[in-house]
Amino acid sequence: MSLWTVQWRDFINQSSYKHLLKDKDISNDKFWRDYRIYDEVLKHSGYPGEILQRVSSLISPGSVILDIGAGTGAFALPLAEKAGKVIALDPSTYQLGILNEKAHEKGLGNIKTITKEWASVDLQELGEVDYSLAAYSLFDEDIEGFLRRIMECSKKGAFIIFRAGEIDPLNDFAYGKRPSADYLCLQKILEEMGYHFRAEVFSREYRLPLKCVFHQFRFSEKSREEITNFLQDAGRLTSEENGLMASFSNKDALLYYLS
User: Helix, strand, or coil here: 227?
Assistant: First the structure.
């Protein structure tokens, strides 16, 4: 086992939301049901932003796209307008329910949803897949197995989106210093497996309503007052008509492989 794989496993077991599921003894579906403001956060954050346009520019019209960890459709819905078919995979019935509602509203009839973990999917049931995409959904201790399955089923290419840059200091304040991993870790693991992915990094600057910040950090032992004071002391709070807004700066990396 390489140092990169060890780093990834430490991150999954001690820092990722999968750690929270185990620690709080809650299901994946309950986690997302309780994270009811998820789409509101996405709207404020500008995600997926430029990465979506970049991925769209790299796929062939009419292709079959597998979206692993599709959530409420941040990628699946817009890509369905160009693709011939999108297979949206997610373990949460709640998230896929929202995705299906949005697809119906947009008149998109080329999205198939599958409620499963990626590791439990029979690749045969997917049929032919041109491109696979995994955006912030690689939360698996067996990362080599996760990635290998992506490459096995992807005929034309694969896209991986994950964090770039430093962890937000608010995370360390809220939960304490914990193991972390970014796209470079994934890129190194892929290289060790014999896959050479190109990388591009995109930046997002945005502001979130303070109520959204509190909800995002609902598992922290820090009080709302402590979180507010931390952001205030860092000069990250501004007062607007609808209340206090907190500023954030994120970097997302796109790793991609085209055959």
Answer: helix
> Strand 237-240 vs strand 243-258: parallel, antiparallel, or unpaired?
antiparallel
The answer to whether the pTM exceeds 0.90 is yes
pLDDT digits (tens, 9 = 90+) for 155-196: 999 999 999 989 999 999 999 999 999 999 999 999 999 999
Rounded Cα distance between 99 and 76, Å, is: 8
For residue 1, count other CB atoms closer than 10 A to its CB.
7
Domain that holds residue 16: 3-206+249-258
Domain presence at residue 225 = no
Query: Is there a domain that residue 216 lies in?
Result: no
C-beta neighbour count of 230 within 10 angstroms: 17
Number of domains forming the structure of the chain: 1
Contact partners, residue 167, CB within 8 Å, separation at least 6: 180
Burial 88-100 (b: 16+ CB within 10 A, else e): bbbbbebbbebbb
| Residue 25: CATH number of its domain | 3.40.50.150
